[in-house]
């Protein structure tokens, strides 16, 4: 119990580096973007290019983050593991930036941005820096330094926020009143480009803040160790790429399936609503940052499986409470996005449930990581990616972004089922998932009621739905003593 309480505390601290920055993004940047970019196509550009970044970041980190945890755990010299992984990522990231710039014309043409080479160059730099900083951030997690981890993450977002507001809100006013040098360095028509410039600068600041951590080790590249790490991590690359297809493909493929005329506008609307649904993923990411090193460390103990089952149960209950919070207050939360984007809010319950299933899969997937069976991650996520691709290709022309939203549930649900099936023969843990079915039934029932019941006004809706959440929490306390566990009593 004490170890689980420690995991919960670390999860909360990592949340400072995950939830607070993302909260600033959702509570500040999303309202700002969806109001300043009245043309939904402009926000579609941002949504699509960041989807490309998700895919490319997986490729450029190629599972090395998890490989670092695994080999540092087994090694008597974790600094050698750290150094080898870092040199590998620096080399491949710099090569990526070089290749993008050398072949900028075909790359921009493939991505349908042949008139915006600067967008592509900046986003290549952002992805490369994020890949390089993956290992220093992983080292902070392994060394249980969530405070520094969170402080750097928060600094990144604050720098980005300040730059975005200056470049898109303050600078245009300065430009209008200026007759000197400012007019030669600022272009008020560049708009979307300044979003990527702000991100590039903030990523650079993050790299500078992590430099002391990166240079205080002896740089040694162990080729033999690197080959073993690649052997372990490469399946995770394939799995991660397939997984990122689930996460990002819909934003990329929508534009092409809908057509160039309205494609970016549809992507913009869907992307804005998607940001609300993906709040669920933020809590899952917060948990994963703390849980991954915890699970690896806990594997040494005899009762590890019981701990994993215990964590799973309360993880699911906590995530269902988050699910209710997002969807029962959606009538208020929707004002985060501009009015031009709110028609797509119908996807939020679907997207958030899809990510809840993904969170359960992430929790369960420790079985193949602990047993060096990462090839199973490839099998599982390729099937999930295939389902995503098929549903989008077959149903988006008829049902639009609703098909893309449902693809998340179908894909992550299939991945979860496959993970449980494969684990039976390799690392079976009695999670007793049947005992959690009442929680799912109650939560989904509450959300469906709130979707179809006609409340008299917003205040009554929020009041009734708050009672729903309280009832759910009291039920969880009655059934599984949830409050006692969460409060450490």
What would you say this structure looks like, in words?
This protein has 489 residues and is mainly alpha-helical. The chain has one domain (2-486). Helix content is 82%, strand content 0%. The protein has 22 helices and no strands. The longest helix is centred in the middle third of the chain and has 36 residues, at 223-258. It is globular, with a radius of gyration of 23 Å. It starts with a helix and ends with a helix.
Biggest sheet, in brief?
none
Uncertain spans: none
Could you say how many structural domains there are in total? 1
Oligomeric composition of the shown chains: single chain
Cα end-to-end separation: 10 Å
Q: Name the helicity range.
A: over 70%
Categorize the overall geometry: globular
Beta strand count:
0
Which structural class do you get from the secondary structure elements?
Answer: mainly alpha
DSSP strand (E) fraction?
A: under 5%
Give the topology string: H per helix, E per strand: HHHHHHHHHHHHHHHHHHHHHH
The pLDDT mean sits at 85
- Helices, by number, come to 22
Kindly provide the radius of gyration, computed on alpha-carbon positions and rounded to a whole number of angstroms: 23 Å
């Amino acid at each position: 119990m004490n170890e689980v309480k420690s995991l919960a505390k670390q999860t909360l601290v990592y949340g400072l580096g995950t939830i607070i920055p993302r909260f600033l993004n959702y509570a500040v940047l999303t309202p700002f973007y969806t109001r300043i970019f009245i043309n939904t196509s402009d926000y579609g550009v941002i949504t699509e290019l960041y989807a490309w970044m998700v895919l490319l970041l997986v490729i450029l980190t190629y599972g090395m983050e998890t490989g670092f945890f695994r080999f540092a755990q087994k090694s008597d010299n974790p600094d050698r593991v750290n150094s080898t992984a870092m040199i590998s990522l620096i080399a491949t990231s710099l090569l990526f930036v070089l290749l993008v710039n050398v072949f900028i014309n075909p790359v921009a043409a493939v991505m349908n941005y042949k008139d915006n080479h600067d967008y592509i160059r900046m986003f290549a730099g952002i992805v490369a820096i994020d890949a390089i900083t993956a290992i220093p951030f992983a080292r902070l997690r392994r060394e249980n330094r969530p405070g520094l981890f969170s402080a750097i993450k928060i600094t990144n977002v604050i720098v980005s926020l300040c730059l975005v507001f200056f470049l898109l809100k303050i600078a245009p006013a300065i430009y209008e009143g200026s007759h000197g040098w400012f007019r030669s360095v600022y272009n008020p028509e560049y708009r979307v480009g300044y979003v990527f410039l702000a991100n590039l600068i903030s990523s650079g600041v993050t790299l500078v803040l992590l430099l002391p951590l990166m240079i205080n080790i002896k740089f040694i590249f162990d080729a033999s160790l690197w080959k073993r790490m690649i052997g372990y991590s490469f399946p995770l690359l394939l799995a991660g790429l397939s997984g990122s297809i689930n996460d990002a493909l819909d934003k990329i493929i929508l534009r092409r399936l809908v057509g160039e005329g309205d494609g970016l506008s549809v992507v913009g609307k869907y992307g804005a609503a998607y940001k609300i649904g993906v709040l669920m993923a933020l809590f899952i990411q917060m948990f994963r940052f703390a849980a991954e090193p915890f699970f690896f460390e806990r594997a040494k103990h005899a009762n590890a499986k019981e701990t994993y089952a215990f964590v799973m149960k309360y993880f699911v209950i906590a995530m269902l409470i988050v699910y209710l919070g997002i969807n029962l207050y959606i009538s208020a939360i929707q004002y985060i996005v501009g009015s031009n984007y709110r028609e797509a809010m119908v996807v939020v319950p679907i997207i958030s449930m899809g990510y809840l299933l993904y969170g359960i899969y992430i929790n369960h997937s420790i079985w193949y990581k602990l047993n060096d069976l990462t090839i199973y991650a490839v099998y599982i996520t390729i099937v999930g990616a295939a389902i995503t691709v098929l549903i989008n290709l077959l149903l988006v022309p008829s049902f639009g972004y609703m098909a893309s939203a449902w693809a998340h549930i179908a894909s992550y649900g299939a991945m979860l089922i496959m993970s449980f099936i494969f684990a039976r023969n390799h690392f079976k843990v009695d999670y007793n998932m049947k005992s959690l079915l009442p929680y799912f039934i109650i939560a989904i029932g509450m959300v469906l009621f709130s979707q179809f019941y006609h409340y008299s006004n917003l205040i009554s809706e929020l009041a009734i739905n708050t009672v729903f959440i309280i009832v759910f929490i009291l039920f969880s306390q009655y059934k599984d003593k949830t409050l006692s566990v969460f409060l450490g009593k």
